[in-house]
Each structure stands twice: as C-alpha cells, then as structure tokens.
Specification:
It is built from one helix and no strands. The chain is an all-alpha fold.
Length: 62
C-alpha cells in the first residue's frame, strides 16, 4: 500500500488534504451574500421603520 499514489502525482510530491482549503473544515453553503449586503439591508429596514414612525407621529398630530 505504501507505493500507491493518485494518477499524475510524482513520487515525493505533497498532496493537499481535503481540509487544506481556505474555508477549513467548515461546509460551504454557496451563498454569495457578504457582510456589506447584509449591513445595507439592515440599514434599509431601519430607514423604512423610521419613515413609518415619522408618518404615524405626524398623522397623530394632524
């Protein structure tokens, strides 16, 4: 068994293990949404909530 190696790999070559990926041992979900997109969505929700609160307050005083 010691002499077996994957096809196309020379003797003495270092073969990367599956956990030698940039993600480490964590599973990848394929999501392309980054922290910036999430922050922009949260800011949009907060701005929308502010507009709703302002409209409700303005309607109460009228």
């Amino acid at each position: 068994m010691r002499g077996l190696r994957p096809a196309g790999v020379e003797a003495g070559a270092v073969v990367a293990s599956p956990s030698a990926t940039p993600e480490g041992d964590l599973a990848t979900t394929g999501s392309a949404i980054g922290p910036g997109t999430i922050a922009a969505a949260a800011a949009a929700v907060l701005v929308g909530g502010g507009f709703l609160a302002f409209a409700k307050r303005r309607r109460r005083t009228s």
